[in-house]
């Protein structure tokens, strides 16, 4: 008999253990106090220092990247 685990099982155990993932770990970057802004186009968290702001119809929108700003502008 072969005692080896099927291909990828070691990786799965190492990367997907309870201590690796959870709501707190998943949301850590998003809930960081620095990340209070959300991109108007893709809904990702945006650091204040990296935010791109643009006004559309009197309302200021925040974007994570130039491409998100352009995509949002194209859809307006």
Please tell me about this protein's structure:
Helices cover 34% and strands 18% of the residues. It has a two-stranded antiparallel sheet. Strands 3-4 form a two-stranded antiparallel ribbon. Strand 1 and strand 2 form a beta hairpin. The longest helix is centred in the C-terminal third of the chain and has 10 residues. The radius of gyration is 20 Å and the shape is elongated.
In short:
It is built from three helices and four strands; from the N terminus they run H-H-E-E-E-E-H. The chain has 76 residues and is an alpha+beta fold.
Q: How many domains?
A: 1
Distance between the termini: 63 Å
The order of strands across the largest sheet is 1-2
User: Counting H and I runs of at least 4 residues, what is the number of helices?
Assistant: 3
Described by the principal axes of the CA atoms, the overall outline is elongated
Integer-rounded radius of gyration: 20 Å
- Which range best describes the helical content: under 10%, 10-25%, 25-40%, 40-55%, 55-70% or over 70%? 25-40%
Low-confidence spans: none
> Averaging pLDDT over every residue, what do you get?
76
